[in-house]
Design a protein that fits this description.
Blueprint lengths: L1 H7 L26 H44 L6 H24 L8 E4 L6 H27 L7 H23 L2 E3 L3 H41 L14 H4 L6 H33 L7 H4 L13 H24 L6 H31 L10 H30 L5 H28 L9 H16 L4 H18 L2 H25 L4 H4 L2 H6 L1 H32 L1
Antiparallel strand pairs: 1-2
């Protein structure tokens, strides 16, 4: 009895003094004071501190490389006697060789170690981005082949560096494209600091190559445009002192077919080279963020919706009409504007097309944003470096066209806004700013939405019936076409009106952004050809604005296509 009474006796937690006869309770383990807890927490905290230190050091490395290369490029532009283009090429060649050495070491050494790649980021490197990487990479390789051929023809007035540099560039572009195609999803778990530094060095090299490509492109455009001015003023015996001193003037292309092919191919493929570097920078940055990242099982096992061209009718029709009309406008513009004296009507036609298309795109984006607000879908709050980068790139790349539009607005308002062409340019600039803002809001809102995951019984019944029909029916072409048509109509009819609208809007905006990417990429630059802003700001100032804003605008259209495809798939 005494034993039972003693066993039922409990310590008084509210008493100040504990009886001496009661033994202390050793059954409760205080984890906050245990050695194991303190050791594990210190390990976790130390791992986070080392990760932040590695990111900081690699970021500082990239910053110093970019500043050094920018100093070389600026010196070449403003003092081309002390620092020449060959000096810049030598610096970039050294950087490219270092990057190639690290890529080879990563592929053959780091990634082959045990437990090196335990996780892969399913959101990183979507198929459209990797496809564009290979496409732009192939065009960049072909561009360098044309540059080598063009330099060989003019070997008497060109240095040997101009032949060696494209050869190194071909090796760098091809190796980097294959590396990113295979390893862009890696979440590397070994050699964190070396991997971060290698990735940041490659990012800095691509940024410098992009800056050099923009500079060289501006030089070629400047020569072409000023030679056109010389032809126009030839009757008046205008002085030729405003022509830039460049060896392209003295190295005239001989009257041969090969030289003409190399020259035209080089000019045609040049924009793809700038896009390739920007795409590489975005994919390398995601890899840098994923170094040492551990993805949970729930996040890793998340099934991503696939792209299916079902349930859309009006979006593809309207988008295809916009693309066809845009191609016709682009061809007419290229035929007339590339002449010695582009007429006024071609600019009116070009800006009128934009003034009609941009409000439609803005209205579609606003309607899509309203539909997102009416939905009851939860927001996707999982940490996603790819999505965060997409948002940053959309907002940053949009600044190129928005900044150019504001410069155009100021120039038009300060001169003659009542003129027909000036009024069209003013309307085009305002609508372009509004379209960028509305489209960014629609894409960013859609990227943060949870994808639909519904399995309707009616859909399952239809799939069962379609399977039975496929097994029983005779294999005839007419019945097969009828079955496919019925399946498409059934899928379209079973979608909710919100999903229908979102898919229609997304697909329409995808096609519109494609045609708006094609037109400036392949040479339609009315912002420089119309002469309004050039005469207001001065030749050099406006050309610098255009050649830094225009590549960002082209990259924005291409990146918007990827974001809109993501919105379409998740709808």
């Amino acid at each position: 009895m005494l034993a039972n009474k003693a066993s039922r006796q409990k310590p008084c937690h509210h008493c100040t003094h504990r009886p001496a006869s009661v033994a202390p309770d050793h059954s409760t383990i205080h984890y906050e004071k245990s050695w194991l807890y303190r050791h594990c927490s210190s390990l976790v905290q130390g791992d986070r501190q080392s990760q932040k230190a590695g990111q900081l050091f690699s970021g500082l490395l990239a910053m110093n490389v970019v500043f050094l290369g920018s100093a070389f490029l600026s010196s070449m532009i403003f003092n081309h006697v002390a620092i020449t283009l060959a000096d810049v090429w030598i610096l970039l060649s050294i950087l490219k060789v270092l990057c190639l050495c690290w890529v080879v070491y990563y592929v053959l050494g780091t990634s082959q170690q045990p437990h090196a790649v335990l996780h892969r980021d399913t959101h990183a490197g979507p198929i459209w981005l990797r496809g564009s990487l290979l496409l732009f990479g192939a065009f960049s390789v072909l561009l360098n082949v044309f540059e080598i051929g063009y330099s060989v023809i003019h070997i008497q007035c060109k240095s040997q560096v101009q032949i060696v540099f494209p050869c190194i560039e071909i090796l760098f572009v091809g190796t980097q494209a294959l590396f990113l195609w295979r390893h862009c999803k890696d979440c590397i778990q070994v050699q964190h600091n070396l991997t971060r530094c290698g990735l940041m060095l490659t990012i800095a090299t691509n940024l410098l190559l992009w800056l050099l490509a923009v500079t060289n492109d501006s030089i070629h455009e400047e020569i072409e445009s000023q030679l056109r001015d010389v032809e126009q003023r030839l009757a008046g015996k205008a002085p030729l002192s405003h022509i830039p001193r460049n060896e392209t003037i003295s190295c005239t292309c001989p009257n041969t077919t090969a030289c003409k092919v190399f020259q035209k191919g080089y000019i045609l493929l040049y924009p793809f080279n700038t896009e390739f570097y920007l795409v590489c920078c975005s994919m390398l940055y995601v890899m840098w963020k994923n170094v040492g990242r551990r993805i949970s099982h729930h996040h890793a096992s998340h099934i991503k919706p696939k792209f299916k061209l079902q349930g859309v009718v009006f979006g593809p029709l309207l988008g295809a009409a916009a693309v066809m009309i845009g191609i016709c406008v682009f061809m007419m513009y290229q035929i007339q504007a590339t002449g010695s004296a582009p007429n006024r009507e071609v600019f009116v036609m070009y800006y009128s097309y934009y003034i009609v298309l941009l409000p439609l795109m803005s209205a579609a984006a606003v309607i899509g944003t309203i539909i997102h607000a009416l939905e009851k879908k939860d927001l996707d709050t999982v940490k996603n470096p790819t999505r965060s980068l997409d948002v940053i790139l959309l907002m940053g790349a949009a600044l190129g066209q928005i900044g150019m539009s504001y410069f155009s607005i100021v120039a038009i308002v300060a001169t003659n806004p009542r003129d027909l062409l000036n009024s069209l340019i003013l309307s085009y600039s305002v609508l372009l700013i509004f379209q960028h803002i509305t489209q960014n809001v629609f894409i960013i809102d859609g990227l943060h939405r949870q994808p639909f995951a519904e399995a309707d019984e009616s859909k399952e019944e239809w799939n069962h019936e379609a399977h039975n029909q496929r097994r029983v029916s005779v294999l005839e072409l007419g019945q097969e076409i009828r079955r496919v048509s019925l399946s498409y109509i059934h899928t379209y009819s079973h979608l909710s009106w919100k999903r229908k609208a979102l898919r229609e809007i997304s697909f329409f905006l995808v096609l519109c952004n494609i045609i708006l990417w094609i037109m400036p990429t392949f040479g339609a630059h009315p912002v420089f050809e119309n002469g309004l802003e050039k005469s207001f700001y001065g030749y050099s100032t406006w050309f610098a604005i255009v050649n830094f804003g225009l590549p960002l605008g082209v990259f924005y259209r291409m990146h918007s296509v990827g974001g809109l495809l993501e919105v379409y798939v998740t709808a």
